[in-house]
Amino acid sequence: MKPTSFQTWQSVQGEVLRRIHSREWAPGAAIPNEADLAQEFGCARSTVNRALQSLADSGLLERRRKAGTRVSAQPVTKATLEIAVIRHEVEAKGEKYGYRLIERSICRPPIATSGAMQLDPSKKLLFVSALHLANDAPYAFEERWINPAAVPAALDEAFESISANEWLLEHVPYTSGEIAFSAVAAPQETASILGCAQDCAVLAVDRLTRDAQVSVTKVRVLFRPNHQLRTNL
Amino acid sequence: MKPTSFQTWQSVQGEVLRRIHSREWAPGAAIPNEADLAQEFGCARSTVNRALQSLADSGLLERRRKAGTRVSAQPVTKATLEIAVIRHEVEAKGEKYGYRLIERSICRPPIATSGAMQLDPSKKLLFVSALHLANDAPYAFEERWINPAAVPAALDEAFESISANEWLLEHVPYTSGEIAFSAVAAPQETASILGCAQDCAVLAVDRLTRDAQVSVTKVRVLFRPNHQLRTNL
DNA sequence: CAGTGGTCTAGACCACAGG
DNA sequence: CTGTGGTCTAGACCACTGG
Q: Does residue B37 sit in the same domain as residue B107?
């Protein structure tokens, strides 16, 4: 039999990675087509396809019909952050989770909010703010606007023992939306809730959630100082 | 022919999503196995497999051999951030990119740095700090430690006209590593470089890069105030 | 137009883990 | 032990797009 044979898509991927790392296939250069590789590797074309497709997803390869496959010259790193329910996040760290409702009201949102949610500014929304605790210390502060038109049942929920976070996940799961990460100076009120100095730098996660085009909720979560979001590349 | 037939994995996925959204398949509940679905949908099992696997990757389904497939009760949202070379990031916004080297030296790193890089603290490393500009205004400040043992060629590069960012990508591409996002108060020196107030809240991206187990570089990038990292969900 | 990747199929074997 | 997903194969058709 010819040199080596690769029978699993993972092993094919490994071999492709080796050639890229060793610069046998240089950055920006084209690599053989699937059929040729399949023959060389002694496997079916679909196996090669699986391996290459996976590498293309991670940004290492660029593939185009007819043009073929080439090694990305300047691969765009893709960092995947897992955003879990905060309770799970805390428990995963081995800390005790706690929850405290701070405010619940029905009122007209700031224009910036109604604008971002693409809703009529005169319509009232449900506002909920709450504090998440880890080992009884402040962990994250969340301010949330909920669109009652999208989730009428929310008006009947007090959010005193369950976070809006989890409640929404249970009642309107599998939504789409946008998320943004930034750094902000903690406003005075927030700072006192989080137990840090005013204008302390904290990580902010802003999230807008839609269910079939209509905005369901918009939330800003401010984490305790020094909080990090980490992942592997 | 039976009701509808689904011939592409995307259409199968669409139908599965519909059933999940409509709660026909409730959160936490098991769904039929691949063979049954294939028969119902009038397609091959591998087509169903492709569709379900993709949904499992995105966290909507949980699959285990023998146990079958079930709808995730509390799906973990996965936000994928694309971390491009800063020059590209700036240019993609339609702004003019600029680069200014601030410091380049060879010295012993702080213990925290050598520790994180798992290197001998007494060994000297190459330190490079630089400012990235957008439309001539500060965009991001980067402080970087480079391990010459891993990239000897770096010692011959001045980094005066090319950022270490891009230089490294060209010379040791396709590395692995870790990345972390946090909020920090800009130290006095950094603040003056970025042109913001001292202790201003800025987004920090810390990145450790390895090439086959050995640390290549560790970098902290501080973005201008109000910078956001965004993505869709 | 023609080469390349994208996908589908029918069938098969296997690894894993639930019971 | 056995059901389920994970994967491989050989072959086929097709969509896209570069030349």
A: no
Question: Strand C: which nucleotides have any atom within 7 A of a protein Cβ?
Answer: 2-12, 15-19
CATH of residue B208's domain is 3.40.1410.10
> Measured between alpha carbons, how far is A141 from A223 in angstroms, rounded to an integer?
6
Q: Which of B67, B78, B74, B15 is nearest to B41 (CA)?
A: B15
Nearest residue to B211 (alpha-carbon basis) of A162, A23, A97, A192: A23
| CB proximity A85 to B under 8 Å | yes
**Total of domains in chain A:** 2
Mean pLDDT in residue range A29-50: 96
CATH classification at residue A49: 1.10.10.10
Residue of B nearest to A82 (CA): B78
Q: Which two tokens stand for residue B125?
A: 């490393």
Q: Do A178 and B233 touch (CB under 8 A)?
A: yes
Q: What is the mean pLDDT of residues B84-109?
A: 96
Q: Which of B151, B129, B127, B153 is nearest to B141 (CA)?
A: B129
**Does the CB of B47 sit below 7 A from strand D?**
no
The confidence score (pLDDT) of residue A213 equals 87
Rounded to two decimals, what is the model's pTM? 0.92
Query: Tokens 């972390």 — which residue?
Result: B180
B43-66 per-position pLDDT tens digit: 999 999 999 999 999 999 999 999
Same domain for B107 and B147? yes
| B2 pLDDT more than 50 | no
Tell me whether residue B230 is in a domain. Answer: no
List the single residue in B183, B209, B233 with the smallest CB-CB distance to A183: B183
pLDDT digits (tens, 9 = 90+) for A48-105: 999 999 999 999 999 999 999 999 999 999 999 999 999 999 999 999 999 999 999 9
Domain coverage including residue B90: 86-223
Same domain, B95 and B165: yes
Same domain? For A180 and A125 the reply is yes
Q: Could you tell me if B215 and B115 lie in one domain?
A: yes
Q: Is the pLDDT of residue B130 over 80?
A: yes
